[in-house]
Amino acid sequence: MPRGSTVTSATYSNLLKANLKPAIHQKRRGFLTTGVRILHDNAKPHTATATVSTIEELWFECIPHPPYSTNLAPSDFHAFSPLKDALSGIQFRDDDEVPSVVHEWLCTCPKEFFSRGIYALVKRWQRCIELEGDYVEQ
Predict the structure, then answer these.
(1) Residue 36 CA from chain centroid, whole number
(2) Ramachandran region of residue 133, left (φ > 0), alpha (ψ -120 to 50) or beta?
(3) What would the DSSP string read from start to end of 113-133?
(4) I need a surface site. Which of 29, 65, 114, 120 has the fewest CB within 10 A?
(5) Buried-state track 68-80, b at ≥16 Cβ within 10 A, e below 16
(6) Residue 137 shares a structural domain with residue 77
(7) What is the residue range of 17's domain?
(8) What's the rounded Cα separation, in Å, for the pair 33 and 56?
(9) What is the overall mean pLDDT for the chain?
(10) In the chain, how many domains are there?
């Protein structure tokens, strides 16, 4: 999206249809028939009626955002610390250079790196369920 533009339900729905679904079809054959799960927070573009309809139309499953828990926050994604380390000390000429460098770094990470992080989140969710929402140790 162009810098300074706002994400609306319409733009987000279009992103799901025009970008996410084709990318899943191309890179993860079979996932569209076995089920795609999306973890959303409660941001308006994610909860708007049009977005919910698009998710249903695409046959995706929306995993509800958990009640606030620092140990379940999707923003605590395991890739952020290694990415921060990888970018440490790099001086960018302008903001437009950042996405390409981040993309390059992401492409160097093995699939197992991402799988470990996703499965760790699943385990933390399960632990939270077992504790009936109480604090979850990592």
Answers:
(1) 12
(2) left
(3) HHHHHHHHHHHHHHHHHHTTT
(4) 29
(5) eeeebeeebeeee
(6) yes
(7) 1-65
(8) 14
(9) 81
(10) 2
- Burial of residue 127, with CB atoms counted within 10 A of its CB: 0-12 exposed, 13-18 middle, 19 or more buried: middle
- Residue-wise pLDDT tens digits, 83-94: 999 999 999 888
56 shares its domain with 81: no
User: What pLDDT sits at residue 61?
Assistant: 86
Write the single-letter amino acid at 68: Y
CA 67/CA 53 separation, integer angstroms:
23
Same domain, yes or no, for 53 and 94? Answer: no
Q: Can you read off the two tokens belonging to residue 16?
A: 């799901």
Assess whether 110 and 130 both reside in one domain: yes
- Ordered alpha helix ranges (H), the chain: 9-15, 21-27, 31-34, 44-47, 49-57, 80-87, 97-108, 111-130
pLDDT at 17: 92
With a cut of 70, list the residues of the chain below it in pLDDT.
64-77, 132-138
Q: Within this chain, do residues 74 and 52 fall inside the same structural domain, yes or no?
A: no
